[in-house]
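Re: weekly structure request thread

Next one in the queue (192 aa):
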Amino acid sequence: LFQKFLNFNQKFPATDHSIVSNLGITILSNLMPKMYPLLERFPDIAMAYYKSLNCFAELLVCNNELPQLPIEILNHILYTIKIGLTSFTYPEIQGHSLDLLITFGEAIIQDTENRLGPLRELTVEPFGKLLFDVIVGLDLHSENKNDCYGAIYILACAALNVEANFCHEMVTNLVMRQKERQTYVTTSETPE
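Done, posted below.
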């Protein structure tokens, strides 16, 4: 039955990697918007979804096709990463989201021609700040700490302006919060 519909003799040229990525883009553009309501209710589907998204991202990076990714698909992937970091109680999904950020960060670092400018703008600072918030808010699963620290480091390295990147701003804010807490504790403990 399958032989009627599929031509197994068809050969693809070894240099034509775009067939796989085009198929992935087509599937993701139709599937991603429909998946969001299902992800939280079905953890097995969510796990498979995040694993396939990781494979697809690595395929795009290996084939140097990440710059051609449509912005709508990129936005969907980044939204998926965001909900994976913040909305699930499963550490594996948070780990897959961190892996995606690391994959994108490494691709941005290796992009010497700045062809990944839109990805840099949408990823580096917003997700760097989000990761700090996840750490400070204690939403980080303990088994993902090293991956989270690695993702922050890679995103900091991927920033265009290293002197004014999000790490300096976030660390300054954290130090100020800590000083405010110490001041509050010190002043509230003094006898009247």
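The CA atoms of residues 86 and 139 lie 7 Å apart. The chain has eight helices and no strands.
Next request, please.
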